[in-house]
Amino acid sequence: MESTQRLIILTGGPGSGKSTLAAALAGRGFATMPEAGRAIIKAQRATGGDGLPWANSAKFAEFMLDWDMRRYRDAAALEGPVVFDRGIPDSIGYLELCGLPVPAHFEAAARAHRYRDEVFIGPPWPEIFENDAERLQSLEGAEATFRAMVAVYTRLGYRLTELPKVSAEERADFLTGRIGEG
After folding, report:
1. In sequence order, what are the residues at sequence separation of 6 or more whose Cβ sits closer than 8 angstroms to the Cβ of residue 88?
2. What is the total count of domains within the chain?
3. Contact 121/161 with Cβ under 8 angstroms?
4. Ramachandran angles phi, psi of 124, nearest 5°
5. What's the farthest any 2 CA atoms get from each other in the chain?
6. Coil, strand or helix: which one is 81?
7. SS3 at position 156
8. Do 142 and 16 meet the contact criterion of CB atoms below 8 Å apart?
9. Helix, strand, coil shares of the chain as percentages rounded to 5?
10. Which sign does the torsion angle of CA 182, 29, 25, 35 carry?
11. What is the phi/psi pair of residue 85, to 5°?
């Protein structure tokens, strides 16, 4: 498997089951890379920082890009498939969703750091969507995020495969089967 083809992205709107799927895959022995957003929000709250989506969206996006670049480098040191809960292009989609300009270095990073051509996207799923301490978006916001991710990944030349709305274990079976197709 070509090195970038082993780097697998799960994307989509919040509350679509991406993190639960990543956890199920980790339980099966897959290397996984966690989502940047939650970790950044927790760190910024703990330190009193303003790099939060509701306080300073541009700074939050810069933190996401930095986080995702580190995860990409970390994945290069691993063997076999690596599943990412979001990837570098997600920060571009986030900026576009916020109506903010996308700095050239974001586009350059997304083009220089490629992942598997097939990206797995979680569709809006109202039945499982819920808010928590880090997820403050509405279902409508989650749907808008989904559309933003479709647009950015398509523009960057990725093929999107929608994840089925089934249990995490069934989704893990689906994804494991797709990964095996190389």
Report:
1. 65, 68, 69, 72, 109, 110, 113
2. 1
3. yes
4. -55, 135
5. 46
6. coil
7. coil
8. yes
9. 50, 10, 35
10. negative
11. -85, 90
93: nearest Cα among 73, 118, 68: 68
pLDDT of amino acid 116: 96
3-state secondary structure of 130: coil
Tokens of 176: 């494991």
The pLDDT assigned to 126 comes to 62
- What does the block give as tokens for 60? 């939050």
Residue 14's pLDDT is 81
Q: What is the pLDDT along the chain (182 residues), one digit of tens a residue?
A: 457 899 999 998 887 888 889 999 999 999 999 999 888 999 999 999 999 988 999 999 999 999 999 999 999 899 999 999 999 999 999 999 999 999 999 999 999 999 999 999 998 766 665 655 555 567 677 888 899 999 999 999 999 999 998 998 999 999 999 986 44
CATH code: domain of residue 118? 3.40.50.300
Domain span including residue 44 = 3-179
Q: Which residue in 11, 51, 57 sits closest to 33, CA to CA?
A: 11
